[in-house]
Amino acid sequence: MRRLLYLAMAFGSLLFASRYDKVKITPNIAYIYVYHKGKAVKIHRIQDTKNKLTGEYAKTYRPGHPIQPIKAAPGVRTIGEVELLDFLKRKVNKKRGVLVDLRSKEYYKKESIPGAVNIPFRVIYDPDKMEKILRVLGAKRLADGSLDTTQARDIAVYCHGLWCNKSAKFIRKLIELGYPPEKILYYRGGFQMWKILGFTTVTN
């Protein structure tokens, strides 16, 4: 009886997984789970093979916003979607890393990548808020003005997309304040590429 129960459970899992096998993330990954505001969210790609992107992120051109270079700053690694998903699984889910959405609060509330927290880009112009952010990320300002980053968490940052310079500017500000570049990941594709690839999003 127990063997039959295990077989039924295994068969049920296969049926469940097959719902996301039409459009996979990689040949071996159909979906992952990430915690967003205390709830597990399944990240997968839209299974409709005829789906087309509409709305703000369907635009291919933004006046005055040139395409960003692949490197945001020396020592900072640029990543794609597969690496970001790995970061969500290994770091964010275990509270050892933070995914930062640098878009405005309005954009974040409407839709974001699961697991992301919002730090609006404009905070880089407020020294007090930046110091608070450093503390939240685990860094500590010492009496001599240096920054102790031994407990600083790994972070990944993103903004609107390949044409948006908010991430690069934020990264350079963090480094200027003493944050180690090797603890920073730059998701250059940003929210537009996340949408183009049909990944799950959440409202906040």
Overview of the molecule:
With 204 residues, the chain is of the alpha/beta class. The protein has a single domain (46-196), classed as Oxidized Rhodanese, domain 1 (3-Layer(aba) Sandwich). The protein has helices at residues 2-18, 81-92, 105-110, 127-136, 166-176, 190-196; strands at 32-36, 39-43, 77-79, 97-101, 116-118, 140-141, 147-148, 154-158, 184-187. The strands form 3 sheets. A 5-stranded parallel beta sheet has the order 3-9-8-4-5, with helices on both faces. α5 links the parallel β8 (154-158) and β9. The longest helix is centred in the N-terminal third of the chain and has 17 residues, at 2-18. The termini are far apart.
Q: Which structural traits does this protein have?
A:
204 residues, alpha/beta, Oxidized Rhodanese, domain 1, 5-stranded parallel β-sheet, two-stranded antiparallel sheet, 6 helices, 9 strands, 17% strand, globular
Strands, helices and their partners?
Layout: H1 2-18, E1 32-36, E2 39-43, E3 77-79, H2 81-92, E4 97-101, H3 105-110, E5 116-118, H4 127-136, E6 140-141, E7 147-148, E8 154-158, H5 166-176, E9 184-187, H6 190-196
Parallel strand pairs: 3-9, 4-5, 4-8, 8-9
Antiparallel strand pairs: 1-2, 6-7
Average pLDDT works out at 92
What number of structural domains do the residues give?
1
- Please identify the structural class as seen in this structure: alpha/beta
Number of distinct helices: 6
The residue fraction in helices comes out at: 25-40%
Query: CATH superfamily name?
Result: Rhodanese-like domain
CATH topology: Oxidized Rhodanese, domain 1
Shape: globular
Q: Tell me the radius of gyration.
A: 19 Å
Contiguous low-pLDDT stretches (5 residues minimum) are: 4-13
The level 1 CATH classification is Alpha Beta
CATH architecture level-2 label:
3-Layer(aba) Sandwich
Strands, count: 9
Give the topology string: H per helix, E per strand: HEEEHEHEHEEEHEH
Largest sheet: 5 strands, parallel
Strands in their spatial order, largest beta sheet: 3-9-8-4-5
